[in-house]
Amino acid sequence: MPTMSGLDETARAIVADGKGILAADETVSTITKRLTARAIESTAERRRAYREMLFSTPDLAAFIGGVILQDETIRQDSSTGIPLIELLAGRGIIPGIKVDAGVHPLAGAPGEFVAEGLDGLRGRLEEYRELGARFAKWRAVFIIRDDGLPTAKCIHANAHALARYAALCQEQGLVPIVEPEVLMEGAHALERCEDVTGRVLQAVFNELFDARVSLEGMLLKPNMITPGQGRAGQASVQEVAEATLRALTRHVPPAVPGVVFLSGGQDPVLATQHLNAINALDGPKPWKLSFSYGRALQDEALEVWRGRREHVLAAQQAFHHRAWCDSAAALGRYSGDMEGEAGFAHPDSTLHAPH
Ligand code: 13P
Description:
- It is an enzyme of class 4 (lyase).
- Pathway: Carbohydrate degradation; glycolysis; D-glyceraldehyde 3-phosphate and glycerone phosphate from D-glucose: step 4/4.
- This protein has helices spanning 5-14, 28-36, 44-55, 71-74, 84-90, 121-131, 152-171, 190-210, 237-251, 268-280, 295-305, 312-330; strands at residues 20-23, 64-69, 94-98, 103-105, 113-115, 135-142, 175-182, 219-220, 258-261, 288-293.
- The protein is α/β, with parallel strands linked by helices.
- The chain has one domain: Aldolase class I (TIM Barrel, Alpha-Beta Barrel).
- It is globular and about 50 Å long.
């Protein structure tokens, strides 16, 4: 099958050397939970101000190749009156959009979920493309449980939906980010996560092949291979890195230009260390190995911001610092010493402080 050159270029640009993705596509309900947990009221204006604070961080384009938005944000304007999506594009950051309609209980598979949103997707993609989006994201989730979850049925249903979504994206000129997330919930061993993730990735690439998706024009967004969050005695950074690279080597074709990991609830520094360790491993790594973090990129900045205009510059410094560290990790050049260094130079210069 021929490649689709515009899509290939966009996919490669998003993960150009040292660049990754900021996932800022929390739904209104998810971002509301994160804001209210910090005693910040969640209004449309607050959510807009929060996203503008992130997007207008100085020098962001050195570390961030793409930002994933969601439906509310893609229609909002910055405080200077230009659409937020244009603010990003004007800074050389490629805008993308979350297009799944969330996960819903999968009939006939108790305790499991399927990501929905295929109905009417072609028209929605067309509209998002007109609004300026250049890539899209669809997230499926898989739960590990001792009684046999995930089932083959759940893996198949979600892999099939991911492939239909990806094919539609490419038809509409958008790069699909294919996100099969094996959740960290539970007390399972690292080996179990490796086995399940391998089965999921294999099923996803089988379906992508059958759906005639061009691998060169997509990005994969998987979980890293870790033990469950509730497991006593966590794995070392090296063990996580080795298992993650092993799973990718076995199940991800080299034609895929980039693998951008989700953070999945990992501590921000640990997510940086894991990414760095994966990139520092010897052995063939035919894809760019980078990040598409939500919480691990935003948590420190959100903690500092707390909804206050006077905290914008300090929050931007926290965000800049984490993006700088993750960018170094995407090149295998991160070191713990970087944690003590400051973010961008200076708060009282002429930096634009949005309100
Ligand atoms: P986390 O990095 O917080 O897991 O979010 C990434 C994401 O986009 C989940 O869909």
